[in-house]
Structure formats: C-alpha cells, structure tokens
Description:
There is one protein chain. The chain has helices at 42-56, 64-73, 82-103, 107-110, 130-134, 141-153, 173-190, 206-216, 233-242, 256-264, 280-293, 306-316, 335-338, 366-370, and strands at 3-13, 16-25, 31-35, 119-124, 158-161, 195-199, 223-225, 247-249, 270-271, 297-298, 325-326, 339-340, 344-346, 351-353, 363-364, 382-383, 389-390. By secondary structure, it is of the alpha/beta class. The strands form four sheets. Strands 4, 5, 6, 7, 8, 9, 10, 11, 13 and 14 form a ten-stranded mixed beta sheet that branches. Magnesium ion binds next to loops.
Amino acid sequence: MKITAIETFVCHARMRNWVFVKVVTDQPGLYGWGEATLEWHTRSIVAATEDLAELVVGEDPRRVEHLWQMMWRQHFWHGNGIVRSTAIAGIDIALWDIIGKIHGVPCHQLWGGRVRDFIRLYCHLGGGNLESFYETPVDNAKQFADLAQKAVADGFTAFKSMAVPPTMPIEGLKPLNAAEACVAAMRDAVGDDIDIMVDCHARPSPAMGLKFATALDPYGLYFFEEPCWPESIEGLATINAAVTTPIATGERMTHLAAFRDLFTARGCEICQLDLTHCGGFTEARRIAALADAYRIALAPHNPQGPVSTAASLEFGFSQTSYIICESVHDDVPWRSEIVTEGYELDLKTRTVKPNQKPGLGVEISEEAVKAHPFQQEVPQRVFYEDGSVGDW
Ligand SMILES: [Mg+2]
C-alpha cells in the first residue's frame, strides 16, 4: 500500500481559510481527510504541505509513527515551527483517518475505545460570528450579557467570551473594572449553573494578567485562558498559583518539549493543545500522556473547520482527561454544506455522541469547497492609544 498524492483544498470561511488535506492512496477509494488551517498563513501552509509530500508520497500510509518521524526530523529542520507543525498535523490526521478506514472503526477505537458516553460542547459568544466575539467592546457589559443568554437559549451549558481588553504592559483600574463588569453581567444573566470562560488572547503582560485573573477570581470562571504570552511560562505559573480559577493555555505550542516546560512549571491546569497545530494525533497523544502525569486537563483549541472538530471529538472520546470541546457553529452559514459528519449532535443539550463511522467519520464535499476559493483573511490588528503595537 502506498501514498500516491497529498492534496490541499482551501475553503474561504471569512475569518479563516480552512485548509483541508487529503492523503490519497493506491487502493481504490481509500483516502484520508486532515485539516491544517492556520489563519493568515494559508499560502505558506499549502506550500509546506507540498514540501512534506516530497517526503511521504510513495511510502506506506499504515506506518503513521514512522512517517511522523520523517516529517518532523528529516531534511535537518525539525517540525516545531508553527507552519511546519500545522502542515505535519494535516497529514498526520489524514493518515489516522486512513487507518480507521482500513480497520473499519472510528479513530477513538484505535486508541483503546471510548472512555465516555458523550462530550459537551462550548461555544464562542455569537457562535463564532467574528463581530460578536471579537468586536463586542468591553464597555458594553449588557451586550455580553445578551449574547450569553443567547448561547444558553441555543442549548449551550458553557461559553467563551473575550471580556479582557487589549492593554499596554501596565495600565490602571479602568480595563480591570470594564472586564469585571462584563463578567458580572454575564454571571447575572445566566446564573451559577452555566460555565463561563474568558479568553485573554495573551493580550496582557504577566503583571496585567495577574491583575485580571485576581479581579475575576470571585466569579467562578470555568477557565481563564492565555492570561499572558505563551512564551512567558514563569508568568503563567505565577498567575496559576495566585488564583483558584484554572488557567488554560497551549494553543500556540507546537511540540512535546514545549508542553513539558509548561507542565513542569505548572503554568496551567488545562492544556489547550491544538490537534491541527501540534503535529496531529501522533504528537497530541504523547502530550496528553505527559499531561496525565501532572493531572492537567485537556480542552483542545478548535475554532477552525469541521475536520478539526471531528479530530477533537475522536481524541476526546479516547482521552480520560478531556473535559470539553470548543465548537464554532455560526461562523459561516454554509458550514454544513461542506461536510458530512459521523458524530451525533444533540442540539438541545449541545452534547455529542460518538462517531460510529470509520476514521474521523467526515466527508468533505470538494464541489462545495470550490464555491469558496481563497481570499485574504480579514485583518485583525491592534494598536494602543499611543499608536504602539498590541496583541490582537
Ligand atoms: Mg484562545
């Protein structure tokens, strides 16, 4: 059995170009789907996938670990840069889809069978709509509350908000008060039975992240995400030690050794590895095993396309420490035209029952993708009041 081609399909989904990766074999009808979406890097990802294809076309797709080692280590440069690690992930996920199809079982069955009966989904405020999630100003606490109620009316028992504004390395009380007002308004609107998450997008410095985390600690957030740059592991560890709110991070980390450093410093309680950025299932399973040694929970980052979601769910049904699946359902109105999914979604409770189909259980409509060719992603840039550069 041989890999004969690796193809990429770019589908413009407004905020992102979804990059679907198809690994084709010499067996009639046997191929796998992966995803390698990386916002504002779409051309690089397509090119990086072409470079990797040189290594693996002609090889046996059943030797997934061996191929992963080739993609990570060969031609001198390791696969730890974000573009390369994302391209590796796209191929790796597709290879596991192929293995599931060969054996006629869902991916989670390959890794020891399902460890739970269902998975809970959480949404972004606005369901993934760019403006609702990213552009609701923090001085509009009422809009946060309204969007929170809408999420609950849509069946979600957990949602994420961007209630922490961009701040310069040091600022005074104003942004803290604004963030607290938003979180208080959301808590008032939905009560204590709903789980609220706040994503800082690594906007704060460690000092500001600590102030925000402390101010929001009394509101019982389910988790507080990226309170400072991922490069600042000591900052993450300081914040995680200072509050009872669990700190979540990891979406920008691309390999096992980076997670080792994060876990050793106890920089988080929730590991948000991204299956499409950290080298795919093969590396993610190693990261998950390491997280288990620290009793750190898993909540993979997943705001991308439908193959990424299917991958997160297959992973979640095989990992005991997986707690919740990030989901986007309202980013583009034609999302469901692109994909057929194998899992069963209960819209009333926003929970998912396991996929029964082989592999990831997804089929991408290549025809439907053609209707949404590449366009430059919507730019998202932040400048502070004085004109200096900030983090989005
Ligand atoms: Mg995030």
